[in-house]
Amino acid sequence: MIPIKTCQDIDRMKRSGRVLAQVMQALAGLVKPDVTTGEIDAEAAEAIAAFKVRSAFKNYRGYPAHICVSVNEEVVHGIPGPRRLKDGDIVSLDIGIEMDGYYADMAETFAVGAVDAVKRALVETARLSLEKAIEAVRPGNKLFDISNAVQQCVESRGFSVVRHFVGHGIGRQLHEEPQVPNFGAPHTGPVLKEGMVFAIEPMINAGTWEIEVLADGWTAVTKDRQPSAHFEHTVAVGKDGPVVLTR
Q: Strands 102-111 and 90-99: what pairing?
């Protein structure tokens, strides 16, 4: 059963999403050479505390940090630490917060200095695939129209879609029904209805779609160690189409 949010629920999630967008904006300026991923996490902790909200990730199923910071071949769930960014890296920041009982979740991939053509195209494709997916969030469409929009955009540009991790419903819990894959047949799946809310998050790779999880139990990397990019927004099904809550 996919939860349906009330107008009041959506308004509260929108407030949470706006705070989250401001946290992301504050952290974006830190993504530069010689900064460590741990320093970005420390700044995230300060920003989250300043807004008087709570990290959705800290201690979630034992996760040790406030945000996820994934570099180059790291797909998702990169644990911040001593790794120092360098020119030519790409870095995804994945952040979730809880505010007054409602969750918001978003991710963005940034270039560190000058990156090569493959990384530039990968990041741009991931960003575009999220926008294509958001366009499909309309009453009467099917869930896997969202999934197929990502897959078609990504694969038409020669990249691959991660299949081990998916997007999800979100609201009073960080993860709610349904799962939202980034691949699937169009015009299939549950019918989208006003009030449904999804965290849509394309994770795409330059090479194979296959991944491995490192010994820390969290950090997922591409099996061929080619780069990966990740974008995410929390999106509601509105009466007339998508409502992005984390702009």
A: antiparallel
